[in-house]
Amino acid sequence: MYKQKKVGIVIPAYNEENLLPRVIETLPEFVDRIIIVDDHSTDKTGRIIEEYQKHDVFKHKIVSIRHEKNQGVGGAIATGYKYALKEQIDVTVVMAGDAQMDPADLEKIIDPVVTGQVDYAKGNRLFTGEAWDIIPKHRYLGNAFLSLLTKIASGYWHLADSQSGYTAISLHALKSINIDRIYKRYGMPNDLLVKLNLQDIKVKDIPITPVYNIGEKSGIKIGRIVFSLSFLLFKLFWWRLFHKYVIKDFHPLIFFYLMSFTLLPSGILLGIIIIAVKGYISITWLILSAILIISGMQSLFFAMWFDMDYNKELI
Known about the structure:
Blueprint: E1 7-13, H1 20-25, E2 33-38, H2 45-53, E3 62-66, H3 72-86, E4 91-94, H4 106-114, E5 120-124, H5 131-134, H6 137-154, E6 167-170, H7 171-176, H8 188-198, E7 203-207, H9 222-248, H10 253-276, H11 283-310
Parallel strand pairs: 1-2, 1-4, 2-3, 5-7
Antiparallel strand pairs: 4-6, 5-6
Helix pairs in contact: 6-9, 8-9, 10-11
């Protein structure tokens, strides 16, 4: 228990035989449940979990769930969330099985959720001045780009480090979302933020220490991930706008976004055509292209400002 609240840790684990013991052994004593979801590992991960379940210290804490088919990190987290929801755990934390999340930051992550300040807290590795030196450059830049897109898609403009998986969620927030609809792969944190925004859940970023080069292995290909998640975020962006500002509570910002996505591309396309055409170019067409681009940019900025203002209370 932590401040009279039941705390559970969901650990998605796929082939983490080397680092999973480190994660388990460094967890604070106040953790009530350690929910390890073995996402159909092909190494000794399952055997290691069984061994820890025999220890007196862990046998009443560790809950082992194994997937018969690999579902991805989002699917593993969703399974852990379902268990936490069934057991009515007050605060559910997600920590990866590769030991890249420092247990020393755990109290900072859960404290705003435990005290009721917010219903969802997430770690932010980009807040620290050492982040640029610690995090591999290609991952830092890819994360920064996806964080910008996630701000726009989710409506949580104050958040950064969208790909951080070190999170804490309240029982209330878990009950407010459809866990079965959570995105099953690497875009799960982004998808969850969009769904939480639709339910007006308050979210907070917590500065945490980046942890790298401890033996973790990443199969993530940044280029492919950035491309696929950009497309996912584009779809989530329109999904949130439609459900939040059309169905749930109408807001005119939807028109400003539609105008920007019409005027801006039209102006740019017209400008490209004008440049490509050889010979005499009428000044009228140049002016029209400029007007379309400027109007499109203004509409986009107005829409973003309206969205920021509407969601300013969710911090």
